[in-house]
Write the structure tokens for this entry.
Amino acid sequence: MRDYSMDLAKVAAAIVVDVMGSDLTATTHYSSDGNNIIMEFNGYPLYGQRQKGKVFVQFPRSTFYVRKGNVYFTPLQQSQCRYYQDQMGNQFVHPHIYNDGHPCWDGSSRERPTDFIANIIETLSLLNVTKDSVTVGLCASGIMGVKLEALENAQRQQKRVLESLKCKPIIKERRKLENYVSKRWCNKITILTQAA
């Protein structure tokens, strides 16, 4: 029987790489207990380090699934998702990621696959760190400092990521990014479900 949860996670990870640049590579696998899917991105310029390394996005295996030939997405709560770097359990360096790796999402959930994929892209590129998000929304952790210090550090890292990975220009415009992600997702899942 085909493992659609993993196939769809691979499609999502490939779209992230497509937007963020071919210097990044992705593999997907299950967590040791089999309850979560882990997207592993290699070749990411890690904050505060010269070398590139790995970042991980972990979420429940039930997030993506297929029933009667249709693709479904289970709304994802921020508490169900984790962002790590270097190795599993190490918090991804980002003002809006808590110490345990879970993200701080406005509204606390992602309802659509394109929104989730775009959010991964914006998190890894730090484009979702804005003046309002660190002064009004505050920081989930002080790993990059707080308030304007966090913003400055995040902007420096964002510049490094965009230049190092040669990300697509659409990454900076949420509407264009979501449209692009949506088109790629629809094309890929059509191919996937027709091949079944």
